[in-house]
Amino acid sequence: MRKLMILTAIAGIFLASCTQQNGQTLKNGVWHGELAVKNDKWAPFLFEVNTVNNDSTVVTLINGDERVKLPGIFYSNDSVIIPIVAYDAFIRAKLSGDNLEGLFLKNYIENDAGVPFRARFNLTDRFLPVSAPSQVRIDGKWDVYFVGEKGDTTRNVGVFKTDGNRVTGSVLTNAGDLRFLEGDYSENGVRLSAFGGLSPYLIEVTFLNNDVFEGQFYTTRGVTKLNGNRNENASLEDPYTLTNMKQGFESLGFSLPNLDGKLVSLNDERYKNKIVIVSILGSWCPNCLDEMEFLSPWYKENKNRGVEIVGLAFERKDDFDYAKGTLSRLKEKYDVDYEILFAGQVGDKAVQKVLPEIDKLSSYPTTFYIDKKGKVRKIHTGFTGPATGLFYDEFKKDFNSLIDSLLAE
To answer: Which residues contact 65 (CB under 8 A, 6 or more apart)?
Structure first.
């Protein structure tokens, strides 16, 4: 039995009282958390604890404008367990007064050693303030280059804004974006971080002049060198050119089980003579969840126009029961009315088996736009979510225009 199922069962026992054997509980209010990343660095984040009537405790992760609610908190002896259901993970930490110390653990990793975690109550500064912050402002668009170990570079786009000494923004890549980054100015640059429940990020940059910076991007897996150049016309490669159909193919021929085990294909009556959006996703993919959060209400508003959506989910395990659990929770969280199908375990082998018609899947999500005759007309790689501001607005405008044009045919 998976650890998450065990945790859920235990949670049911403890939720009624939400108390520990030593009588301690998490204090309501803002906590300052940190997760260890490479090079002995810590990625800070803020979270708020709210307990209603001594009954139900919710932890809310705070990153810029993003609020990620983590319900179902429970206690065992001197520890608090914070389930992160969306990503099949949890935090387990010992509670001692105003301090927490423990591990961030992932259920799907066997014998996971975990990521060190610590937190302190009533510290509301994400980073320790400095007495003389940099006078250079990072506001606007930047070409941001990720530099590989062999010196190879990948061009991305940074979008940032300043409010007082607080900096928010994101970095867009052709696979998606780094979501809601938040931080402030250091003596000679900017510090940014984020933790939305899956992976902690830490970015530290130093201004070389008003229009150039260099820095590092830290995760639990490694450190990537960054170079930045201010450019108000910064843009990514055309996302419609990165994934293509193989020569001689015009349609998709998958037949996959939905969460009830029933096989679904685009030849089913539900999809005939309709515009169909096929979203390649994974419950482990934050940008996929951003796309789902957009698509779910959009579908409710537009399905009567002759549009359908199908999600093809590649999960961490080639296990239908596991996928059914994770994807059912996902459908419930985002109130999804369209079908989500289990496509197998994430990886090139499964993708080629399910989608032999495409040359390569370069990122999650990837979205196919299919016309009323079943022909793939466009393929969009990645997703620019709400953290990207104007880029997100541009995406929504482009998305609706494309659907309108296909419906008009």
So the answer is: 168, 180, 386, 387
Q: Give the Cα separation of 100 and 93 in Å (integer).
A: 6
**What does pLDDT average to over the chain?**
92
Condensed to tens digits (0 to 9), the pLDDT of residues 111-140 reads 899 999 999 999 999 999 999 999 999 999
**Residue 389 CB contacts under 8 Å (≥ 6 apart), including other chains:** 159, 161, 169
Q: Give yes or no for residue 79 having a pLDDT over 60.
A: yes
**Joined tokens for residue 318:** 């080639």
Looking at the fold, whether 173 and 263 belong to one and the same domain comes out as no
Residue located via tokens 């930490």: 93
Spatial distance between the Cα atoms of 378 and 368, rounded to a whole number of angstroms: 6
At position 289, the amino acid (one-letter code) is: L
Distance set, CA 329 to CA 30, 195, 275, 335, 389 (Å) = 27, 20, 27, 10, 28
Q: Using alpha carbons, select from 205, 200, 196, 206 the residue that is nearest to residue 222.
A: 200
Helix or strand holding residue 311 (H, E):
strand 307-315
Same domain, 300 and 169: no
Number of structural domains (the chain) is 3
CB atoms < 10 A from the CB of 118, how many?
15
- Give the per-residue pLDDT at 281: 97
**What is d(CA 34, CA 126) in angstroms, rounded to the nearest whole number?**
9
- Residue whose structure tokens are 């405790």: 57
Q: How far is CA 132 from CA 135, 179, 183, in A?
A: 9, 28, 16
Q: Is 117 inside a domain boundary? A: yes
CB 33 within 8 A of CB 117: yes
What's the domain range around 202?
140-230
d(CA 397, CA 405): 12
